[in-house]
Amino acid sequence: MCEGFFGKSRPNRMRASRMGRLFTLARLVGASLALLLVVGGTLPAVAQDWGNPYGEWRYWGADLSSTRYSPLDQINADNVDDLEHA
Fold first, then answer.
1. Do 3 and 38 share a domain, yes or no?
2. Which DSSP state fits 77?
3. What is the pTM of this model?
4. Residue-wise over 68-82: b if at least 16 C-beta within 10 A, else e?
5. Does residue 60 lie within any of the structural domains?
6. Is there a single domain that holds both residue 36 and residue 54?
7. DSSP class per residue in 35-86
């Protein structure tokens, strides 16, 4: 390969430039993932309302995501001792 104006061959400078861009891209992806983990870890866990009417399970597992969540509040800590077999 022939030497360029500053004494380095052109392909080597291009290779270094590509490596610098890859390194910058890797740092950007890493920082984005770290931010996503921090933000995702600090959000509160909240029950999702998937549009089922109150007390109805229209799908196996309550909803399309099979969360098995029911907002019913008829049984609580005060009346659990009064439950009987049906």
1. yes
2. T
3. 0.34
4. ebeeeeeeeeeeeee
5. yes
6. no
7. HHHHHHHHSPP-----SPPTT---STTSSTT--------SS-TTTGGG----
pLDDT higher at 8 or 59 = 59
pLDDT, tens only, 24-62: 889 999 999 988 888 777 666 555 556 677 777 788 887
Amino acid at 43: L
Backbone region of residue 43 per phi and psi (left: phi > 0; alpha: psi in -120 to 50; beta: other values): beta
67 has pLDDT over 70: yes
The span from the CA of 86 to the CA of 84, in Å, is 6
- Given a contact cutoff of 8 angstroms between Cβ atoms, the answer to whether 55 and 70 are in contact is yes
Total tally of structural domains belonging to the chain: 2
Q: Which helix (DSSP H) or strand (DSSP E) does residue 18 occupy?
A: helix 10-42
